[in-house]
Automatic annotation (TrEMBL), chain A:
Key words, A-Z: ATP-binding, Kinase, Membrane, Nucleotide-binding, Phosphoprotein, Transferase, Transmembrane, Transmembrane helix, Two-component regulatory system
Residue stretches in coiled coil: none
A GO molecular-function descriptor: ATP binding
Subcellular location, principal: membrane
One GO cellular component term: plasma membrane
Class of the enzyme per the UniProt entry, highest EC level: transferase
Any one GO biological process: cellular response to phosphate starvation
Protein name: histidine kinase
UniProt keyword annotation of ATP-binding present: yes
EC number per UniProt: 2.7.13.3
UniProtKB/TrEMBL annotation, chain B:
Organismal lineage: Bacteria, Bacillati, Bacillota, Bacilli, Bacillales
SUPFAM superfamilies hit by this protein: CheY-like (SSF52172)
Record-listed 4-aspartylphosphate modification sites: D58
Official protein name in the record: DNA-binding protein
GO BP: regulation of DNA-templated transcription
Length: 460, 237
């Protein structure tokens, strides 16, 4: 299933992208949000340095520069200067409980940690050691040590972390995606079935049960519509069959009596001629009714087709012979050209005869002043189809009109209404060809004659 | 021909006008013993009481269809039957003929067609056997006796072989018309033309040698190129 694979691919790619994006966003947030406040106020080390540098010996006194003092006040810190002998020789806002002398061990200890819970920072001074203390519980002091090898490996570790993240994201999305696809796959095949107008029924369960139910509903709706359409087609076809039936009985009488009058000796010649016209028109009506019935049956796929292997050349010989035997006017010549006898099609003989006869008849009807008609049976250039080609050298049809000729008269597909004849002939031939899995191809232009090519699949 | 006109004809048709029209045609052609029925029931009654010689049945009747009627008639009578139907569908035609009807005519029809088909059926069913003799006919100086399968020309007798006879008979039945090579092969060898082209040509040449004064320029047995052959018969005995 190509659709499912594509969805999975896209889903995984999107997941990885999202993971990378999240990672980047997290780093940015870490920098701007989490570490915000870590350096709130002046950094203690800097304050200590400022104090150390701003402390001058002034005679026997020490003076702190005002800006250093301001810093201390701002940080609510205290400060002292311990001389090299361990005595406090200068102090500022020092808490009372702190001792005034410090041993070397004490100095070493508080410089690393706390002095009586006061976080303290030290800076060297020409007279000793400047100690700045912050209020209790205001700062946390940590001593961190890293092995050098660890530090140098850090970039690789971070890189590995990044790729590990991406891999994890890919695997997770693949896992979740494939589960999703497994759930979607029946839906996809259901929708494909819908688009091919097949009946489909999906099991409605899982997270997509609602969609499955919708697809089932759409499918049953389509089936109902199809059944309805078929019923309507059938009704239409039956209706036309009924009408043709009803026309036939009165037409029998018109034809019967007209032909009786035409042959009667007691009727004057002029009236005989009129009766003859009535009969001929009646016969036209008869062929129209039967064409209409056949076209309607073919159009609604209700015409029973009795196929058997038919040798196209035999059929063509029979049809051409029938035209020649039935008093073809002198002005018409008809010629048969059989290029191969090995031209079999699976077909309904009566329908094929009707189609081919109709093509030849067309050439005769549309060229009243006569023409040469050439009937050819042959194989298509690729040897896969049997062709029956009827060509005349008559007046032809304007090229733009050709597509209209095979559409039913008055149908919306037809651009202009039919001008001569009832226009059912070629649509009927085209439909007979279609019913045999073949097609009708017309080529013509004004003054260039007409070529009608019937193409059928060869029967093995 | 006249003896056929004495046969009793039954017309079963629910449309009175059609019935009258057919009646008119038949009377004009010389038939006089004509019975009418408008329904299956009436028709069966007439079949029992008057024993018609041939029946023309409409397929659609008020109390059933013609096919059912034919089945009922066949229980006690073997009279020839022509179906006359406004339904031209192949299925109906096949059903009718399958039930043993002798012909099936689709409305609208020309009266001449109906009468001709009726006569053909009457002749076929009621003709005395001796009528079946094959004809003797003249082609220029040649006399062809199909019954004896002998051609007589210039006081010579030429016997026709079985195949030649069959071919000539088929051509004679369609005299003046082109008979396709396929139809000839079908009637003589029961097979398609394909594969018999040369055989057919050879047989035609032999027939020409027997019937034509000058076989290379035939006057009576003509080749219609690409289609078949045509037998021109100018006079009949």
């Amino acid at each position: 299933m190509d659709g499912a694979a594509r969805i999975l691919r896209r889903y995984t790619a999107a997941s990885i992208l999202i993971a990378v994006f999240l990672l980047i966003v997290n780093y940015i947030i870490l920098g701007t949000f989490v570490f915000k406040g870590i350096n709130e106020g002046a950094p203690p080390v800097q304050v200590t340095q400022t104090v150390a540098e701003g402390l001058y010996k002034n005679g026997s006194h020490y003076t702190l520069e005002p800006d250093a003092e301001e810093w201390l006040q701002k940080s609510q810190a205290w400060a002292m200067l311990i001389a090299n002998n361990g005595k406090v020789i200068w102090d500022y806002a020092i808490p009372d409980q702190l001792p005034r002398t410090y041993s070397l061990a004490e100095v070493a200890q508080f410089s690393r940690n706390y002095l009586q819970d006061y976080p303290v920072f030290v800076w060297e001074h020409e007279m000793g050691l400047v100690v700045v203390g912050y209020p209790k519980d205001s700062l946390a002091k940590y001593q961190i040590h890293f092995p050098i090898s660890w530090i140098s490996d850090l970039p690789y570790r971070l890189l590995a972390l990044l790729f590990g993240n991406i891999l994890l994201a890919a695997l997770l999305s693949l896992f979740i995606g494939s589960r999703l696809i497994r759930a979607i796959r029946p839906l996809i095949s259901g929708i494909h079935a819908l688009s091919e107008d097949q009946h489909t029924h999906l099991e409605a369960k899982g997270m997509f049960s609602g969609i499955a139910r919708s697809i089932n509903h759409a499918s049953s709706l389509l089936q109902e519509k199809n059944a309805l359409l078929k019923a309507r087609d059938e009704a239409r076809s039956n209706w036309i069959a009924g009408i043709s039936h009803d026309i036939r009985t009165p037409l029998s009488m018109v034809l019967g009596y007209a032909s009786e009058l035409e042959e009667s000796d007691v009727v004057p010649y002029e009236q005989q001629q009129k009766a003859s016209i009535i009969r001929k028109q009646g016969e036209k009506l008869r062929s129209l009714v039967s064409d209409l019935n056949l076209v309607s049956m073919l159009e609604y796929e209700m015409q029973p087709i009795h196929t058997k292997p038919i040798r196209l050349s035999t059929l063509a010989r029979q049809i051409v012979t029938d035209f020649l035997n039935n008093d073809l006017a002198e002005s018409f010549t008809i010629e048969l050209d059989v290029t191969t006898e090995q031209c079999f099609v699976m077909g309904d003989e009566k329908l094929l005869v009707r189609a081919i006869t109709n093509l030849v008849q067309n050439s005769i009807v549309h060229n009243p002043s006569g023409c040469h008609i050439h009937v050819q049976t042959t194989l298509s250039p690729n040897q896969r189809n049997a062709l029956l080609i009827v060509t005349d050298n008559g007046k032809g049809v304007e090229q733009a009109m050709l597509p209209d000729l095979v559409e039913l008269p008055y149908s919306s597909k037809r651009k202009s209404p039919s001008h001569n004849g009832h226009g059912l002939g070629l649509p009927m031939v085209a439909r007979i060809a279609a019913a045999h899995h073949g097609h009708l191809l017309l080529t013509s232009d004004t003054g260039k004659g007409m070529t009608a090519e019937l193409c059928f699949p060869l029967s093995s | 021909m006249e003896e056929w006109k004495q046969k009793k004809v039954l017309i079963v048709e629910d449309e009175l006008e059609i019935r009258n029209m057919i009646d008119g045609f038949l009377r004009k052609e010389g038939f006089s013993r004509i019975f009418h029925a408008g329904s299956c029931k009436e028709a069966l009654g007439i079949c029992v009481s008057d024993k018609p010689d041939v029946a023309i049945l409409d397929v659609m009747l008020p109390d059933g269809d013609g096919f059912g009627l034919l089945t009922s008639i066949r229980r006690f009578s073997q009279i020839p039957v022509i179906f006359l139907s406004a339904r031209g569908e192949d299925e109906d035609r096949l059903l009718g003929l399958g039930l043993g009807a002798d012909d099936y005519i689709v409305k609208p029809f020309l009266p001449r067609e109906l009468v001709l088909r009726l006569l053909v059926i009457l002749r076929r069913v009621y003709a005395p056997p001796q009528i079946d003799r094959l004809p003797v006919f003249q082609l220029g100086d040649s006399t062809i006796d199909l019954e004896a399968a002998i051609v007589t020309r210039d006081h010579h007798e030429y016997a026709l072989t079985a195949k030649e006879h069959a071919l000539l008979r088929k051509l004679y039945e369609n005299r003046g018309r082109i008979v396709t090579s396929d139809a000839l092969c079908q009637s003589v060898w029961g097979d398609d033309y394909y594969g018999y082209e040369n055989t057919l040509m050879v047989h035609m040449r032999r027939i020409r040698e027997k019937i034509e004064p000058c076989p290379s320029t035939p006057e009576y047995l003509l080749t219609v190129r690409g289609l078949g052959y045509k037998l021109l018969v100018k006079e009949e005995l």
